[in-house]
Design a protein that fits this description.
The chain has 970 residues and is of the alpha+beta class. The chain has 33 helices and 31 strands. It has a five-stranded antiparallel sheet with strand order 4-3-7-6-5, sandwiched between helices. α5 packs antiparallel against α6.
């Protein structure tokens, strides 16, 4: 019993050594198992052989040379778990060492060692299931098999030793060897399972890396502390940063998120490692500044026990989707804009007749809100209107059959009124469901237009029928298809006799052929033709017509006939000669008016210069002694200037720009008073015959203008008479009727006083009469006339709203007839003019503000007034005048101003200065009439005016007259 116990303890000790060495082996040699090279397997066999030597060195000895240890278990398990190469190396080492130790059992022990290894190798290669699936039962069975073989070999020992082994060793070995094989095998199985699991984990991790590294999305894992555990390479494509940058800096993700999106991220809790899942879309900024949209999914990860392991985040680049959404949004916006821009109703109804989609015009036209429209059914628009419902129903049936349809119906809007609409509908199928869509167009205007068209057609038919113009239509063959009633009146042919016949049949001979030729010309050219045609009438003779013919075309533009409108112009033809004559008169009047405007402009500027010449000449004459030869020269200058002034007055009279002061006159008295002067003017060898008028009407004229007219006419008549001869002046009342005015372009019907001046001179031809009133036109020799006499007469007559005619024939004298309008009011006798004063009215140191835009004339006027005893404030412009008026401390007694100036006219200047000096007197000066102070050259009532050029004496009188009117005489 002690021997067995000792054997058992030694075997346990040996097997414990095996287990310990196996653990060390598992820790130090495990990496070789992953390497299947020959060298690695040899090293593994050497290690196993080393373990076998360690076991042999601590055996249980039965007798010298016969030992027992755990190397058999080692070799069996080595063959099973490590394969034949390492096991063979281990067997060779173990056998060599055992043979080296020698003894009775050396050979048998080596054989047992090899047999154990062979059993393990055979077991490995003949089993079907993987080694990691070996159960403890199979390991125990392997231990039994090795034990049986080993015990069988003991019988090769000497018999007495074999019996002893059987008696003393078999029992403990049967207990210990299978058990140790099971324990050590289980250890190796667990190791193998661990390796398989590790390999599977490595394989799974490799697969994960393959999948994760190649995923299109950007994947990363965060540990519970927020550090990156993993980051997929897609991060660089999406964010522009490498995975190494994210693994090194966990805050980089938050740095690249747009600030406004990061605020939302924080609100949702996606900015930190937490145990809540969140999803958000945000923008990140790449290093190149490009914005990218990502869809961020933040998912917490837990193990099977619920332990929080970290965060798995998935970032998908949705930039393209966002851009597509923006494109869709823009397209939707565009589509909505297009829909809303459609002037009619755009609608989409489902197969149940419910309104699904519509444009804004639905709301604007019908008055319903969006919420109300969403509840609308198709037939709701036609309540209590069976006619419209029937139309719509039939249209929808047509849509179901043909795929499209249209109808007209009255749409009932919210305010209760009905609007006529034209509807179209098209059948659609969307996701297997039928819809119909279309457009509704408001045809109220069209309906009204159709009614208007019907009215227009009726009106046109009435217009054609009752037109005073002949209207007709012919086909291409020239046969009449339409004529109006006027055609019957003019041609004396009834309509039934005309329709279907040609012109050759209705008007035989040249007339019908001529009508046909013009028709063919219109149809061949395709253009409108206006032509004059004639028709011989047995009762009225030749009748003249103007015809407008134009081609009629069908819808393809092919000429199908002609239409004509003919107007009789027989009366117009007869009036053409008369019209031409009157046209000549009108052109002559227009020419005279144009020349008058030119003459007036020249006279205005010339008057300013003459004023300067006359003024300075007059002042120079006062300074030069009459005995001085220079005095005579100055007088000649003065005479020449006065003659020039007379010429400008005549030009102004012709241009109707001279300023006049009309008075109510009896021309008998005026002409009678001038006869002596006129007789002296024409000479003693010409007889002046004066014939006053009976019960002569009054006229309103400036007396000086009457003097001008008579003087010019008598001088012109004198020059035309080869003495002796007669000049007759005759006055009479006259009434001009419409017939007279029709033949005289400038005449108006009414009552006139006629002044006729007739001479017995050599007369004039028609060519001369046409130019006789033009300024500077003369038939006299050089130096014998200015050519302004009759032009002055013409201007005076026009200015007084009269008319003048001349009648003359060569060798038979000339007669000028002037018609001045009758003054209808009671005659007021004009007081006789006082005797002209020789003395110059001097001033009493009154202050006069003189305004003149011509510097030379301003200087001259100032000098003349100062010599007359006045204080003068001189201004070259209205603005300067206003400045002097405001600056002057004392009183200003008179404003003497030009009428036409830059900045403002004279009347406006007076109104401005009167606000400061309410009692200010004013005197206007000008070289010609301006409408500012006169209408048509007639001076306004109460206006003081001095005509340029003026003398010092005239200036003194006008200034005193203006100062003393309504005031206190000094």
């Amino acid at each position: 019993m002690n021997q067995s116990s000792n054997l058992l303890l030694v075997l346990i000790h040996n097997l414990a050594l095996l287990l310990a060495v196996a653990v060390v082996f598992d820790v130090t040699i495990r990496r070789w198992k992953t390497d299947n090279s020959w060298l690695a397997q040899i090293f593994l066999g050497l290690a196993l052989g080393g373990i076998a030597i360690a076991l042999i060195l601590t055996p249980w000895k039965l007798t010298p040379g016969v030992i027992f240890d755990a190397r058999y278990t080692l070799m069996g398990l080595a063959g099973l778990f490590f394969g034949w190469r390492p096991t063979v190396v281990a067997m060779l080492i173990a056998c060599a060492f055992r043979l080296h130790l020698g003894g009775t059992g050396a050979v048998l022990g080596s054989c047992s060692t090899c047999t154990s290894g062979i059993i393990g190798i055979a077991w490995r290669y003949f089993r079907k299931a993987p080694l990691e699936d070996i159960s403890w039962k199979e390991l125990y069975l392997l231990g039994i098999a090795v034990y049986v073989v080993m015990q069988s070999l003991t019988f090769f020992l000497p018999w007495e030793i074999a019996l002893r082994v059987f008696k003393e060793v078999s029992g403990p070995m049967l207990i210990i060897h299978p058990l140790v094989t099971t324990l050590l095998g289980t250890l190796l199985v667990n190791r193998l399972r661990r390796e398989v699991l590790t390999a599977k984990i490595s394989e799974d991790e490799a697969k994960f890396h393959i999948v994760a590294d190649n995923t299109y999305d950007w994947e990363y894992w965060l540990a519970p502390d927020g550090c990156f555990i993993y980051c997929s390479p897609s991060c660089e494509r999406i964010s522009g940063h490498t995975r190494e940058e994210f693994l090194q800096d966990s805050t980089l993700l938050h740095q690249i998120i747009c600030p406004e999106d990061y605020a939302l991220l924080k609100t949702r809790g996606c900015d930190k490692v937490c145990d809540d899942k969140c999803e958000i879309e945000c923008r990140i900024v790449r290093p190149d500044g490009i914005l990218r949209w990502i869809s961020h999914v933040h998912t917490p990860i837990h193990d099977s026990q619920g332990l929080f392991l970290g965060i798995r985040c998935s970032n998908r680049d949705i930039t393209d989707r966002k851009q597509a959404e923006e494109t869709i949004r823009q397209e939707r916006k565009f589509t909505d804009a297009v829909m809303d821009s459609i002037p009619g109703l755009l609608y989409l109804y489902d197969d149940q007749g419910h309104l699904v989609r519509w444009n804004k015009k639905h709301e604007e036209i019908t008055g319903y809100t969006r919420e109300e429209l969403s509840q609308m059914h198709l037939l709701d628009w036609y309540k209590d209107d069976p006619v419209s419902i029937e139309k719509i129903t039939k249209a929808l049936e047509q849509v179901q059959i043909t795929g499209s349809g249209e109808s007209e119906a009255d749409l009932l809007v919210k305010n209760g009124s009905k609007i006529p609409f034209f509807f179209t509908a098209v059948l659609l199928e969307i996701d297997g469901r039928k819809y119909f869509t279309g457009i509704g167009i408001n045809i109220a205007d069209r309906k009204k237009a159709e009614e208007d068209l019907r009215k227009s057609r009726r009106f046109l038919a009435d217009l054609i029928e009752h037109s005073g113009t002949l209207i007709f239509v012919k086909n291409r063959e020239g046969r009449y298809e339409l004529v109006n009633s006027q055609w019957e009146v003019v041609t004396h042919l009834r309509r039934s006799e005309v329709i279907g016949k040609s012109d050759e049949e209705l008007f035989p001979g040249e007339t019908g052929q001529r009508f046909r030729r013009t028709d063919e010309k219109v149809m061949s050219s395709g253009a409108m033709l206006e032509i004059e045609e004639t028709l011989e009438d047995t009762t009225q003779g030749t009748r003249f017509f103007i015809s407008i013919k134009f081609p009629l075309r069908d819808e393809n533009g092919v000429v199908t006939g002609i239409c004509g409108m003919t107007t009789e112009i027989t009366d117009r033809k007869h009036a053409e000669e008369e019209r031409e004559r009157l046209q000549d008169q009108l052109l002559q009047a227009q020419k005279m008016d144009s020349v008058g405007r030119l003459a007036g402009g020249v006279a205005h500027d010339f008057n300013n210069m003459l004023g300067v010449i006359l003024g300075h000449t007059e002042m120079a004459l006062e300074e030069v002694d009459p005995s001085n030869p220079l005095h005579g020269d100055l007088l000649e200058i003065q005479k020449a200037a006065l003659r020039s002034s007379s010429l400008t007055r005549q030009l102004l009279a012709f241009a109707r720009k001279q300023t006049v002061i009309p008075k109510i006159l009896d021309l008998n008295e005026i002409v009678s008073g001038m006869t002596k002067m006129l007789q002296r003017l024409i000479g003693e060898d010409i007889t002046l015959v004066w014939i006053p008028g009976e019960n002569l009407w009054s006229v309103k004229v400036d007396p000086s203008q009457v003097d001008q007219v008579l003087a010019n006419l008598c001088v012109n008549a004198r020059d035309a008479i080869d003495a002796p001869g007669n000049i007759t002046i005759e006055l009479r009342n006259a009434v001009l009727d419409d017939e007279y005015c029709a033949n005289n372009a400038n005449a108006l019907p009414g009552e006139y006083v006629e002044l006729e001046v007739t001479d017995t001179g050599h007369g004039m031809s028609r060519d001369i009469i046409d130019h006789v009133f033009e300024p500077f036109f003369t038939t006299k020799g050089v130096g014998q006339g200015t050519g302004l006499g009759l032009a002055t007469v013409y201007g005076v007559v026009q200015q007084n709203h009269g008319t003048i005619n001349v009648y003359s024939e060569p060798g038979r004298g000339t007669s000028f007839k002037i018609y001045l309008p009758r003054y209808a009011e009671n005659l007021v006798q004009t007081p006789p003019e006082g005797a002209e004063q020789d003395e110059v009215s001097a001033g009493h140191h009154e202050t006069i503000l003189v305004v003149e835009d011509e510097p030379a004339l301003l200087h001259m006027s100032r000098a003349m007034l100062e010599r007359l005893g006045y204080r003068v404030l001189a201004a070259n412009s209205p603005s300067e005048a206003l400045f002097l008026a405001d600056k002057h401390a004392g009183e200003i007694h008179l404003l003497m101003t030009d009428v036409v100036m830059p900045e403002m006219n004279g009347r406006e200047l007076v109104q401005r200065i009167l606000t400061r000096y309410p009692n200010l007197k004013h005197l206007f000066m000008s070289g010609y009439t301006a409408n500012v102070i006169a209408q048509h050259g007639v001076l306004d009532a109460g206006v003081h005016f001095i005509q340029k050029p003026f003398s010092r004496k005239m200036l003194a009188e006008k200034v005193r007259e203006a100062l003393e009117e309504g005031g206190v005489k000094r």
